[in-house]
Amino acid sequence: MSSFHFSKRSKQIKVNAPQLRNGRVTVSSCSWNARPSQTHCSEWRIDRGTWSAVAIALLLSIAGSAMADPRDTAAPSGTRQANRPDFKAVESPPQITIQANVFDKRVRAFISKVSGVPVWSNDDPVALWHTPICPLVEGLRRQDGEFVFDRLTYALASLGIPRGAIGCRPNFYVVATTQPEAVLKAWSHHDTLMFGDAAGSERFIQTPRPVRIWYNSALVGSDGNGAVPLSTFGGGTLGGFDGAPTFTGHGGSWRFEFPVVPNLLSVIAVIDLTQVMGLDWRQVTDYVVMAGLTKVDLDAKLGGAPTILRLFTSSADARPQGLSDWDRAFLTELYRTSQVSRHQRLEVAKAMLRDITLPMNERR
Predict the structure, then answer these.
(1) Which of 34-43, 143-152, 234-243, 256-265 has the lowest mean pLDDT?
(2) CA pair distance 20, 51, nearest whole angstrom
(3) Other beta carbons less than 10 A from residue 144's beta carbon
(4) Nearest Cα to Cα of residue 352 among 321, 328, 324, 323
(5) Is the pLDDT of residue 273 over 50?
(6) What's the rounded Cα separation, in Å, for the pair 364 and 63?
(7) pTM exceeding 0.90
(8) Interaxial angle between packed helices 281-292 and 142-158, expressed in degrees from 0 to 180 and rounded to the nearest 10
(9) 31 pLDDT more than 70
(10) Angle, nearest 10°, between helix axes 344-357 and 101-115?
């Protein structure tokens, strides 16, 4: 939308396209007669959450007041109309000011719950992929398996996360089975490096979930060098790692940074087919994407947050259908912001707020 134009006789009005400024939608309008010197302009600020509800009423109010013509109103008896326009100030509509900080708090709470770490924490670096992801899907019929693989790779591409070339060595396993515990036990006996050297693998195997997630990772230096093995599972922790603080100079300023950060080496997603009956494979695949691209707390109480992570805790009629705008903004900004920054989660929160509220054509 660019602008609205109204005209009546010599009277003109232009209502400019709404703009988002500091979390509020700003609408401006100007009206004029034949000469530019007779121009009147007004501006209204509206919280974006209420914009859709008041837009029509506001535009009609603007149009109605600005289109009024003195010649359409009879002058009171005994008075003489002036030959020049009436410049008497017109009172503007009251401002609608619902504070954006309420929405900001929701976003910060979402990040804290999903990551299992307070958004303001500067002691827990975010686990991300540094190497291209190479998916492998096992245990499904050919048609379903191809759908899950295509959906997964499409999600990676849309989020700007590199995928391995054809023939790459798998590092993102999606295994579907009706007997997850038996399969995981047999797999771990066959491949002793499956769970790295992390304790807790038995708990991971024996804890029933619709989708189990296991993370194998290594601590790497902020320059990408060095590696210290580190493994964990969804609902667990990063082993209490707390990166020691360092100071580095950037253009004359100083910034807190982690000397090492967790690099995801492989992820194992095990789908219990007996617990996902009735769900669409689009929903299940998007859940795996959200849980597999960074370490998340699968036990988090997410309330009413719009996220695919509520797939197995929502009622049947309220289940999310796929990655939400919040999910996409969260993952996108995790990989766009600096992983070594001790304020990464706060930076992600700020960027998420912008991404969610800005119209698509205004996003960078």
Answers:
(1) 234-243
(2) 11
(3) 15
(4) 328
(5) yes
(6) 33
(7) no
(8) 50
(9) no
(10) 130
